[in-house]
Amino acid sequence: MPRWLIWANLALLLLFPLSWAAPLMRAGLLPLFGLSEISVLSGIAALWDDDPFLAALVALLALVAPMAKTAALAAVHLGRLPARHLGLLSGLGRLAMADVFLVAVYVTLAKGLGVGRVETAWGLYLFTFCVLAALALSLLTKRRLA
Q1: Side by side, which strands form the sheet with 23-28?
Q2: Is residue 128 part of a domain?
Q3: What are the pLDDT digits (tens) for 105-127?
């Protein structure tokens, strides 16, 4: 296994938590007032008050699935987990991608309503990069081991 592939995957173990705290979007009710920054972590915390089940589901998709996939892929790279588990890893990757889709839908809906103002922030791009990089690293690993 090439070293760059191993290091790129391990870098995601640092980048994912950073992306969770980074602002995904800035939202405000009226254009005249300031915008509040919303991150994955602040979104989950706000959801917890209204709908604990949905908050737990989002936490599973946004936090647990990507980290589990990244850690398991690192175990495959380091020879601690058999390569036959790569199929399970792609399923975890699909779960992780689901929340990026949900954020995009929410931003589109909020902009379409015209009640307030929503701007995407750098954390959305970082989080999307992390999810797509994890997917790419998984595919590259599968090719190398096939």
Answers
A1: 36-39, 23-28, 117-120
A2: yes
A3: 666 656 565 666 778 899 989 98
